[in-house]
């Protein structure tokens, strides 16, 4: 390990280590991705992201889990948020809330509930 | 001077090699080993720095007592420091990966096969330095 005249052997030791490390990191990234796919709700996904947040400061996995963050955000924006937008435009004039409540109060309650559902992952 | 240098290097290398042997692969507590590596590297560095400082002082104060170094002086020390730093850097990564698997990921990923394979990889990475 320390023989000055065996530079090549020491380089090989480091190279073997680095190869194992890269493979392990890939396996971890894959396991994290699989876990993200198995979780369906955005709230759970954001909770997972929070748990993985500490990994971003570490030397290992540097930059390798950023894709997950972007995927979760883009999936939230493209699927869930646009779904809430569609619901809003579809029902805003005739909100599906108990009609014993005055019209404008009804609309406000409904809009607020919709907003809360959309905001929940960040709460 | 070469003999002192050789003795310091031999001593540091021996301590590190023994520490490697003492580590239980199933628990993999690397903290002590990493501390020893850092201290070993610093000890060699201190010896080199102090030697240069002493030589400079002697030369400045009275040039007739100055001396020439052998060509190989500090080649072993520089080699030891470089390798110890490389090993320390790798062990730091290994420690982080080990912690990540043992502590942080267990709360999130429920896959026994993943843990078994990851543990095996961690041990392989450690053994690279022992073999």
Question: Would you mind describing this structure in some detail?
Answer:
The complex is a heterodimer of chains A (123) and B (131). Chain A has 123 residues and is an all-alpha fold. Chain A has one domain. Chain A has helices at residues 7-38, 42-52, 66-91, 103-119. In chain A, helix 2 runs antiparallel to helix 3 and helix 3 (66-91) packs antiparallel against helix 4 (103-119). Chain B has one domain (2-130). Chain B has helices at residues 2-22, 31-61, 75-104, 112-130. The model of chain B has no long low-confidence stretch (mean pLDDT 88). The chains are: A mainly alpha (123), B mainly alpha (131). At the A-B interface, helix 1 and helix 2 of A face helix 1, helix 3 and helix 4 of B.
Keywords for this entry:
heterodimer; A: 70% helix; B: 131 residues; mainly alpha
Largest sheet of chain B: none
Overall helicity of chain A? 55-70%
Rough shape of chain B? elongated
Give the SSE order of chain B as H and E letters: HHHH
What's the helical proportion of residues of chain B? over 70%
Q: Work out the helix count of chain A.
A: 4
Low-confidence stretches of chain A: none
Unreliable stretches covering 5 or more consecutive residues of chain B: none
- Quaternary assembly: heterodimer
Instruction: Report Rg of chain B.
Output: 20 Å
